[in-house]
Amino acid sequence: MSRAARPPAIRVRTPRELRRQRRGRAHSCWDHLIAAPLWPLHGANLGTLLRTCDAVGACLAVPRFPWVPAALERGNTLRRPSCVHWVNDPVGWLERARDDPGTRVVGVELADEAVRLADLPAARTRTVAVLGHEQHGIPAEALDLLDAAVEIPMVGDGSSLNVAVAGSLVLYKLAGLL
Asked: Which segments cross the bilayer (predicted)?
């Protein structure tokens, strides 16, 4: 058989096939996963993170900064409502989340006690993934509210990734999809 006559080795699934394979139940944010970039720096990252939240079945908790709604609107390429929770007081919101029985609060932070991303177990209970400011990290008053910290190892010169990339990696791991 000539090379040109061979069928393709990889068959790409159609969007319809993909939709049929995904979960059949309705999304319920309070029993799963919430991404919480509570101190965002760049709006483009929030839109990207919103798309990741949809991909893994998570919700997004964001502060009520004046520019955040427009950033989410620009970034919502799905053009349908997504699960977004508006937070007026990030530290107070984290305190209430942590006090909710069965909720685990995991921060993405470079800390001595941090577990490496590869060793992070999938979320088995309601989990809030806290993402800090891209330049300053998670504020000191919020660090005490974390049940655990996760670190994303890096080989290059940088010390951190942007919120969208870091959040996406952690959400996929917590969702059990990596």
From this structure: none
